[in-house]
Amino acid sequence: MGTTDETLPFSTRAFIFQAEYDDIPAFRFFVISNGTVCGYLSLSLPMAIYHVIRKGAAKSRALLIFLDAIMLAVLTAGASTAAAIVYLAHKGNASANWLAICQQYQSFCNRVTGSLIGSFGAVLILILLIFLSGLVLSKRAM
Asked: Digits of tens for pLDDT over the chain (142 positions)?
């Protein structure tokens, strides 16, 4: 998503028709939120491996699940804001006089849509992992 841009072939020197991800603040938030979650998950992975090896770390496991839930909220917020803009790019909004731009910027829209699919896939995987972590934590507490 961070490298997504497209310039239309009929641009002139005076008028350049270009679409970049950082032109829209919702896309910037999408990239920042995905980067933040990716960084957090890469840092929490060694901690999760440590918890698999060590059996009696219930308090830090609960903290890890709590932080995972916060990251899930951040990831969902970023993907949802970008999805709203992508919907407008595909469909437009006649009452707000916003035109659909995906007929002109097809490559841009395809890359952004692919990024959204990946992000929502990560949301589903993170939900599953949080659920499984909570299940394991509750079974070990009993």
From this structure: 666 666 656 656 666 666 676 778 888 999 999 999 999 999 998 888 887 777 766 677 888 899 999 999 999 999 999 999 889 888 888 888 888 878 887 888 888 899 999 999 999 999 999 998 888 777 765 5
| Cβ neighbours of residue 124 closer than 8 Å, sequence gap 6 or more | none
Measure the CA–CA gap between 100 and 93, rounded to whole angstroms: 8
Q: Supply the pTM of this predicted model.
A: 0.82
Q: Please give the Cα distance from 35 to 21 (Å, whole number).
A: 15
